[in-house]
Design goal:
- The protein has about 230 residues and is of the alpha+beta class.
- It folds into 2 domains: about 120 residues, no CATH class; about 100 residues, D-amino Acid Aminotransferase, Chain A, domain 1, CATH 3.30.470.
- Helix content is about 30%, strand content about 20%.
- Strands 9-8-6-7-10 form a 5-stranded mixed β-sheet, covered by helices on one side. Strands 3-5-4 form a 3-stranded antiparallel β-sheet, covered by helices on one side.
Amino acid sequence: MPTVINNINYGISAWYPTLADHTFPTTFVKLKESDIELIANGITQSNEVDSLINRLGNAQSAFHGATFVLSDTVAPTDTPRFIDKKGAVHSPQSAWNNLVLSAKVRAAAKRKDFEFICIRPFRNMTYLREFRLFIYGKTLKLMSQTQLDRPYKRLTLRKEFWWGMANEFIDDIAWLLPDNNIVMDIYFTSKDEIMILDFNPWGNPTDPLLAKEWTLDWNINYGLKLLE
């Protein structure tokens, strides 16, 4: 059973039907409890795995070229393939191996935090275009860059643009949000289209990034926070 907080399921499969036109095309493979145990135990080869790999292949066939395969709640961002190839996979076997090699995904499987595998077309994303939105009372209150290794001048030059676009986006989709107070990760495409990456619950343990703390007065609009 996936993790549900305050009656909200944050898995991609829960919000995708409502917000599919604001995120990347996605197909899903439903998992049995025994399938989730295979991931939790890091099993790469067995008859049961072969059956799952066939199902993954069917779901991957909806897209041409490389795909990015993740669990419903956790992406395998801690694997060698993610470091070397940003997680791009071509075959269902590679997709499965990348999932079970991820300590993050295995840990989530042990907690039974998810029951779907999600398949998306691979995009060579520029991490500077990823942002975290802090939405309070269905209103955007703060936005943080997610790449926190150093300041980036190109972000500062477009600071007001990013904030304005995100504000307008949240105003448009506020009625579709799964909760009044929620954290959303987004990506700006090269055409400045906003794509939802995922949702996180409000408050700890979600990382506040440049908001720095959850005890802020969330009735205030803080704008876009950047390393400067």
